[in-house]
């Protein structure tokens, strides 16, 4: 009886291991981080600066193809990269024949993204994103709170773009919580 049970256990382990060997994958262990770094979007105004080499500096907007042009270096795919990621790509190309140890800074000067304010505010709607936006500033852009607002229960709905995670996450928000492009600030009605 013990030999039969041990044989079944061994067979179960072998079947499980063979399924893993055939390429079966486990679900992702963790969700993408909520505070993931900003990724450049089509229409953002991106500024490239190469320290002490202004001949490589550029300001450009990635449009339909997501590409920007950098003088003397050509085209780079910018949309979908973080500013640091784009700086790394430019740095690699500069290091491969132009400069030794180039210092590249990429900043987003204007964001194409929008944010949304809904619920108990004077003028709910869509607004153009600006760097440094907080819940307090977003509510002010929407004309302020109504008399029925419950600001202590304000939430931020944040879209997630990584595969395998939730399509969006809902976060508790304080007045100084950061708002990111494409976020929705929800101000609920007070129960009283």
User: How many helices does DSSP assign?
Assistant: 3
CATH architecture call of the largest domain: Roll
Using only CA atoms, what is the Rg?
Answer: 24 Å
Measured as a percent range, the helix fraction is 10-25%
Number of domains: 2
Strand order of the largest sheet: 7-6-10-8-9
**CATH topology grouping of the largest domain:** Outer membrane lipoprotein wza fold like
N- to C-terminal distance = 68 Å
Structural class: alpha+beta
Query: What is the total tally of β strands?
Result: 10
* CATH-assigned homologous superfamily of the largest domain: Outer membrane lipoprotein wza domain like
Order of helices and strands: HEEEEHEEEHEEE
Portion of residues in beta strands equals 25-35%
Task: Characterise the protein shown here.
It is a single chain. Helix content is 21%, strand content 25%. With 192 residues, the chain is of the alpha+beta class. The chain has 2 domains: 45-110, wza like fold (2-Layer Sandwich); 114-187, Outer membrane lipoprotein wza domain like (Outer membrane lipoprotein wza fold like), CATH 3.10.560. The chain starts with a helix and ends in a 5-residue tail after the last strand. Mean pLDDT is 82; it is low at 1-34.
Structure summary:
By secondary structure, the chain is an alpha+beta fold.
Features:
192 residues, alpha+beta, wza like fold, Outer membrane lipoprotein wza fold like, 5-stranded mixed beta sheet, 3-stranded antiparallel beta sheet, 3 helices, 25% strand, elongated, disordered N terminus
